[in-house]
Each structure stands twice: as structure tokens, then as C-alpha cells.
Amino acid sequence: MQARLLRMEALGARVAEVAALDDGEFDFASAPATGGPEVPSQELEGFELQDALADLSLDLQRREAELEVLEGLLRDRDYRDATAVAGKPVSSGWISSWFGNRVDPFSGDSAFHSGLDFTAPRGTAVQAAAGGIVIFAGRMNEYGNAVEINHGDGYVTRYAHQDKLRVTVGEVVKRGQVIGAVGTSGRASGPHLHFEVLKNGQYVDPRRYIARAL
To answer: Looking at the domain 94-213, which fold is it?
Structure first.
């Protein structure tokens, strides 16, 4: 019983830490507050004592199982937060071309722009907008040197026209990790990063995801 209690207390302390609860809100290190009228104790017969211990054992098992489930849910929440696309994909720079229809800088015709362009000096760090797995890193036709990251839940981000790439296919990256540098590779009129967000294979406006971090 003592061993189970110690395990439950240790697990509860980890859950409280992961949940970032306020100090003292859920303190497994201290005994819970109790009270009530004083009533003389009664001696338990052997069978009654065994039954009471068996019930206590089942209660402890249920509490352990509940805490393990809670811990798993909290860790899943942290994972979802880490892989949610949010924030700018460059360490510095400004948006020079928006998502949607625009005048193509090369042909002068109206054309659909599938992402955002961030103008920045060559060599500016390109950062992952969320945690995920690199599914492409290399030359991609008019995109030039590009990186694609799968974030799960149907989300993929693409980072194009880079100078140098710093990740490889299959690598697990974290939000804010440097994955390359701004360049002019591919169909680019000057140093900039072309940033795309795809949801289930469809282009979506990256501005809504950048705004999440503001």
C-alpha cells in the first residue's frame, strides 16, 4: 500500500508540473486537509480488515489509472501546441507580397500567389513555424531550394527560394528551429522567403497562422 501511495504521489507531482498549476493548487507532497467529529474507533475483525484493505487497494488502482490518463491527455495537449503553425518563418524581414491574386513580377499578368513573401537580406535565418517532420529538403523546380514540414492533422508548411538548407528529410524539428537561410534560388527577383501553409493539400492564407503568435 505504501509503495502504491508513493507511486501515486510521484505521478501526481508530474501531472501538476506538466499542467503548470499554480503553487499549492494541487500539492501531492502534502496531506490533504481533513476534519470531522471525533468518534471512538472500532476494532475490525480479520475478515473485515481484509475487505477494507482490498477496497483501499482497488481505490488506489483506480486513482493511479485516472492520473495516468490525465497525464497522457496533458502531454497530448503539449504536443498539439508545439505542432500548431504560428509565428513568422523568418528571424527578420517584412511581407512584400500577400496571399491571393496579384500581378506576376515576371510576366506582368494577373496570377494567384499561393503564399506570403518575406523580403529579407540574403542569409537571414529561416525558422520552422511549428514542430514537425521534414518531408522534403532540396531543389523544387521554380521554388528553388525548399523545405516542407509535415505538422500532422493535415498541415504542411513550405519554405522556398532559400540559399542554404540546414535540415534533411526525416528530421524532427521544433518550432523556431533554423531550417535554412533566405536566398534567391528558383524563380525569385531578389532575396526573400516564399512561405506557404497547406491544409489537406489546399493552400490557405498564412496570415491567420502568423497572427496566432501575436
So the answer is: Glucose Permease (Domain IIA) (2.70.70)
